Amino acid sequence: QNCHIVFQNPRMSDEELEKFYTEGHYRRTLNLSDKEIDAGEYSRAQVDARIIREYVGKAASHLDVGSGRGYLLAEIGASFEVGVESLLEVPQVGGIQVYPKVEEVPLKSFDLVTAIHVLEHVPDPALYLKSLVKLLKPEGYLVIEVPTWKSPGGPLRLAHLYHFEPDVLRLMCREVGLEVMATHMTPHLMLVCQRSRNS
């Protein structure tokens, strides 16, 4: 009760999770039209991009994990943009190159990696964070956003395997070699991190 993390148990198996996302079931559980989902993602991308630019400035290369239609990539406007999106049928804005898995991205070093509403969906968030840190250039930036108890829709959805309190997420970031530069409520929980010099 004192560890400030809530996890779903029982949860879908890894095979069921893969099917849940790649076949588009997740978007259907939101009970919103495609137009409403797009409007929400676009609005969130604008808010997030403003905060990210405060700390990162102009990133030359940007990997967005869980990129959806690519709105955040378009808002950040890096010279080199790559998305990771398990539902490849989602049309992209601006012809952004998208891969279904992080492991398939050819470039392995980015100035900026964003994982907006991703960590709460993965079976092993700490391991997943480590894999993202490896994709950062020395002193590159990783920006994470997860829902809070007060977020629209709340944390306890079928697809949300974890709910993080700020202190837990900050500790996880430090454990994987990140310096937490800032915490923002967007109204979701956003951490702006930088790869530690000795990681």
Topology, pairings included?
Layout: E1 5-7, H1 14-22, H2 25-29, H3 34-56, E2 61-65, H4 71-76, E3 80-84, E4 97-99, E5 110-116, H5 125-133, E6 136-146, E7 162-164, H6 166-175, E8 178-185, E9 189-195
Description:
The protein has helices at about 15-20, 25-30, 35-55, 70-75, 125-135, 165-175; strands spanning about 5, 60-65, 80-85, 95-100, 110-115, 135-145, 160-165, 180-185, 190-195. With about 200 residues, it is of the alpha/beta class. A seven-stranded mixed beta sheet has the order 4-3-2-5-6-9-8, with helices on both faces. It has a two-stranded antiparallel sheet with strand order 1-7.
Short descriptors:
single chain, about 200 residues, alpha/beta, two-stranded antiparallel sheet
Q: Summary?
A:
It contains six helices and nine strands, in the order βαααβαβββαββαββ. The chain is α/β, with parallel strands linked by helices and 199 residues long.
